[in-house]
Structure formats: structure tokens, C-alpha cells
Design goal:
- The chain has 3 helices and 9 strands, in the order ββββββαβββαα.
- The protein has one domain: Nucleoside Triphosphate Pyrophosphohydrolase, CATH 3.90.79.
- It is of the alpha+beta class.
- Helix content is about 15%, strand content about 40%.
Length: about 170
């Protein structure tokens, strides 16, 4: 059972918790992180979701997920990177690019606050170090290659902000 802290729209902790999978209460939000990992060649680590994922199977994306109860945004970002792609990120190499409150997307209730992180990383990358089976494969791509994925509808569409908001 995965527990999340609940926040007000202006990011104040409510002291309430939420069980993943249950409907989120109206006017309360959970914290989500998107983690873009960039190497010194200007490439981004992109992952393909496993075929068994309930949403967006085999689509490409950045690292991301929900921040767990008691975690800060950066702690969630670092944990998700380790779980999904087996990378140990340093907090000193990350920065928040932007945050956004999402209510309804394409008719679906999200009720989340998304923190988008950008980390610099030049270490080894192998899925053998990942602690979940959420990811099918990982690859370094430049911006134009990621744009090709997007144009072919192979990139999770909620990541289209990448082309205007991420420090290229």
C-alpha cells in the first residue's frame, strides 16, 4: 500500500494522507515529480514504460512518479530515479525547472502538484540497478530525437512541456 501526503492547491500540507488507487478528495492534491536527467553531451535519459504498465504501456517518458508520505520533492525525485532507471542522483546536481498544479487532464481527475526536476548526470546507466520492473529500456537521446518520439505519438503526451520549458 502506497501512502501520499495531501496538500492544498497552494502547496500547504494538510496532515491528511491518501492511499494510492483511491479517488483523491476534491480540492486536495498529491505531489508528483518528473525527473529529466541530462548528461554533459546534452542528451536526456529517456525510458520506455514496461508493457505491463496500466497506463501508457511501451510509451517513452522521463523518470517520474508520486512522492511518498513524509518525503520531500527532491527525496521523491532521487528515489524514483533509483527505482525506475537504477541511477543514484546527487541533490546538488538537481534543480526544479518549474511546478504546476494539475486538476483535470483530458477529462481525468489528476489533482496533483507536479515538480519538474532537471539533474546533471554523467555516470553509468543500467537497468540492472533499477529496483522495479516499470521500465522496459532506457536510452540517451537529444532534443530532436525526443521530438521525433513525440511526433510519432510514442512520448507520453503530458510531457510536451519538455520542448518549451526544459533548459536545453
Amino acid at each position: 500500500m502506497e501512502l501520499w501526503d495531501l496538500y492544498t492547491e497552494d502547496r500547504k500540507l494538510t496532515g491528511k494522507e491518501h492511499i494510492r488507487g483511491e479517488e483523491l478528495p476534491n480540492n486536495l492534491y498529491h505531489l508528483v515529480v518528473h525527473v529529466w536527467i541530462k548528461n554533459s553531451k546534452g542528451e536526456y535519459l529517456i525510458s520506455q514504460r514496461s508493457a505491463n504498465r496500466p497506463t501508457f504501456p511501451l510509451m517513452w517518458e522521463c523518470v517520474g512518479g508520486s512522492v511518498l508520505k513524509g518525503e520531500s520533492s527532491i527525496q521523491g525525485a532521487i528515489r524514483e530515479a533509483k527505482e525506475e532507471v537504477g541511477v543514484d542522483l546527487s541533490p546538488d546536481n538537481g534543480k526544479i525547472v518549474f511546478s504546476k498544479v494539475r486538476n483535470i487532464i483530458d477529462g481525468k481527475k489528476f489533482n496533483d502538484i507536479v515538480d519538474v526536476w532537471l539533474f546533471k548526470y554523467d555516470g553509468d546507466v543500467t537497468l540492472n540497478n533499477a529496483t522495479t520492473d516499470e521500465v522496459e529500456q532506457i536510452v540517451w537521446m537529444n532534443k530532436s530525437q525526443i521530438l521525433e518520439l513525440f511526433e510519432q505519438n510514442k512520448l507520453v503526451d503530458t510531457l510536451k512541456y519538455f520542448f518549451t520549458e526544459i533548459d536545453i
